[in-house]
Amino acid sequence: MFSSNWADDPNTVLEVKNGEIGGLLYARDTVIENQLADLNNTVVSLVSRVNAIHRTGYDLNNTTGVDFFVYSDATAAQPIPNIPALSVKINSAIADNTYIAAATQTNAAGDGNNALAIANCVNTLVTGLTDAEDPVAASGEDSILHYNTSRITSLALEQRHAITGASDTGNIMTAMDEQREAVAGVNLDEEAANMVKYQRAYQAAARLMNTFDEMIELVVTNLGLVGR
Amino acid sequence: MRITNRMIVNNNINNLTGSMERLYELQKQSATGKKYLKASDNPSNNASVITLKSALQTSEVYETTAQNTNDWMSATDFALQQAGDVTQRAISLVMRGLSDTMGAESRATIAEEIDGLIKEAVDIANTKHLDRYIFSGFTTDQKPFESQYLDATDTTKVTDVYYKNNSPAAIAAQPALVAFQAIRRDIGPGETVTVNTNGYTTFQGMLDTLIRVRENLMDNDTVALRTQAAALDDVLNTVTLATTINGSRMRDLEGAQDRITQSNTEIKALISQKAEANMAEITAELTNQENIYQTVVTISSRTQSMVNLFESLG
Q: Which residues of A touch B44 (CB under 8 A)?
């Protein structure tokens, strides 16, 4: 997927750990990546378990050893493709229902014991599978159902965690902003009061000037008549 | 704390947004009827709902299986009762045939009636339920009892009945050919029932005895016929035993069906309790939240349009 590099140092990938971009990158590279890996594990385990049991059974035509699921992207070198969840499909050899191996023995139209085993393999371990074939079992979980439920729950918890974190950080930011605002912000009443205060002071100063002017005028006009 | 006008405006916006968000949540809940829409709204609750839903699906399949099994067993029960009736009729015919006042000709007439019973018994042993032979073990697509005739072209007189086309000699050489193939169905976690009844042990003796009865009547051989009367009593016991076993299985199954239905109801109630919104509660909360929103709007408009000192100074 896409990554950004420094313009002056093309070999170093720009790592953003915080902020909106950091969050988006974390979701893309960690959360979704883990979910995809778990989903693929679920698919691989289900396919391997169902196939392992299906191969041992017999269908209505007495054929055996046929896989139930196949990967359309599988190659001889890589029987399990990179993204199994995308390429899994039902084997075209069993498109007809009479080719589903429901019986544990030949010539047994009424025997459904293999179908029963397939139904149970979702919750119970199938022996003889490698870790690569059954990653769910390799992770220490017998039941694919539980594995899948815990995958969904872990995604839900991750999201819950993010929502709570965003809301908490928002609250802290608001509190800090309020403190800054308390010091640096403008209160109109305060400004009005101050304005009135300075206006009054100015008026008082002007009045004082006026008084001095009158005093000097008195001196100038009333003392002596030289020059008149 | 020194309060500035910007703080009041920001506070108003925050309050309005918060109140709107809660309204939006309630609107979603009331519109969908669900307590939450995303797993992240309540992760632990969601996990148990997933588990419960999966349990419900499994349980509903068990319910269907139990019903199918019950249908099969009812068909078996009906067939076995008919088989019992046929045996009873055969016994009374044999009793008549044993009567000393009977002559060879009247015994031949009774033999004709027994012949009819043989064909009836073969039909019963080949009973089909939903196009599957119920007394045929796993091979439900194969007719269990094949009538053999003296002459392939003349199908009026059954000389022998072979189980799955195996002659008695073949069966004696390889008893596994007639081994009971029990069809089992899961009707609960770890609860398995056997669906079918052993066709070979139930019907082979009956058919063989009936054929012998007919032959003895034709041959007017009352000494042999007397031993067949005792054999028919055994046959009746076998059929009655099979009916009883099937009946007790049906009773067990009905008990299990009741349990499954009850547990389904309980699981559904749990899911509803965990996942579905309580409409009365939501409506009440919605009204409350509406009032809160109205109040927030009123307070916001009043605090923001408050007369400040500038205006009052004129």
A: 153
Contact of B249 with B182, CB cutoff 8 Å:
no
Nearest to B208 by CA among B173, B159, B246, B241: B159
pLDDT recorded at residue B196: 92
Residue B13 main-chain phi, psi, to 5 deg: -60, -45
Residue contact A103–B6, C-beta within 8 A? no
pTM of the model: 0.78
B186 touches chain A (CB under 8 A): yes
CB contact under 8 A, A152 and B137: no
Of B203, B5, B216, B271, the residue nearest B102 (C-alpha): B216
pLDDT at res. B144: 93
Average pLDDT over chain B, rounded to whole?
91
Instruction: Spell out which residues of chain A touch residue B165, defining contact as CB-CB under 8 Å.
Output: none
> Across the interface, do B309 and A188 touch by the CB < 8 Å criterion?
yes
Distance of residue B50 Cα from the nearest chain A Cα, in angstroms = 7
SS3 state at A9: coil
Nearest CA among B90, B173, B175 for reference residue B124: B90
Per residue of chain A (228 residues), give pLDDT as tens.
777 888 888 888 888 888 888 989 999 999 999 999 999 999 999 999 999 999 999 999 899 999 999 999 888 888 888 889 999 999 999 888 889 999 998 888 888 889 989 988 988 888 889 988 999 999 998 999 999 999 999 999 999 999 999 999 999 999 999 999 999 988 888 888 999 999 999 999 999 999 999 999 888 888 777 766
Query: Is pLDDT above 70 for B224?
Result: yes
Q: A145, B54 in Cβ contact below 8 A?
A: yes
Task: Give the closest residue to A174 by CA, choosing from B6, B219, B162, B138.
Answer: B6
Please give the ipTM for the structure prediction.
0.75
| DSSP line for A99-132 | GS--BSSTT-TT--HHHHHHHHTTTS--TT--TT
Among the listed residues B145, B167, B186, the one whose alpha carbon sits nearest the alpha carbon of residue B58: B186
Beta carbons of A111 and B50 less than 8 Å apart: no
